[in-house]
Design goal:
single chain, Nucleoside Triphosphate Pyrophosphohydrolase, six-stranded mixed sheet, four-stranded mixed sheet, about 25% helix
Length: about 290
Amino acid sequence: MADRQALAFTGSRLDRADNLRADPDALAGMMNWKARLLALDGLMPGMDENGGLVWSTLADAAEDAELVFLGLDDGKPCFAAVPPEGDSRPRMANPQLWSLMATLRPDDLALYGGARSVTDWHARHRHCAACGGSTRIVKGGWQRDCANCGAQHFPRTDPVTIMLVEHDGRLLLGRGLGWPERAYSALAGFVEPGESIEEGVAREVLEETGVVVRDVTYIASQPWPFPSQLMIGCHSYTDSDAITLDETELADARWFARDEIAAAMAGEEGAPINTPPAQAIAHHLLDWWLTR
């Protein structure tokens, strides 16, 4: 997919400068008037009139703020403050986010996505999962340590497979519970402990539609900060198009021919479905399939 438009939330311009995270003196030395503070309202970013992120200085941070070192932007240290509360709701619960994704420049969107994920994790992990004690921020915000039992905690990323299933030149797409009538997308689900990516693809497709897949291949991945997922895009084949729908997971699942998907991707009037927006990896997977 190298020749296609970069996936949303990828391509951050920041140097993560991991070597500085474990050096408290170096971090302290960067916390001066040159440092930049990402403007956040809770977890929503401030935006200027040109659709860019808004930055201020550390002087604007609350006195007791927990600061996360995001990295270096052209040598300038960048920080974000942890909000009072996190947000574990899915992206669909906040329609403002679709507008945001379409407005922010790609490199700003990638930077914001990383900042959102890590600050949201901090806001929801102020207590130790081992003993319940209070945790404190260390390593520039890329770790929390328990003050009581000493347990170390690290920002999490949850792997999710999202997959195209092909049979005789058609694709299997599903409509989630509560989705609009014409909204269809690739099937998806979390990878469970003890599974490979390929096994996660096969299990999710079987559970949701009763379809047995083979020849699973990796296509592309996308960080998805709602709250902290890594979408792993795959393609697979099946030898049978019989569907047994799990109605607790999906409202519908159907096979679509190439011309139907092409019409939907082109936004043609009369297309049988609406495909995912350009910011979603599912859109890129469909584009990949149509043009490979």
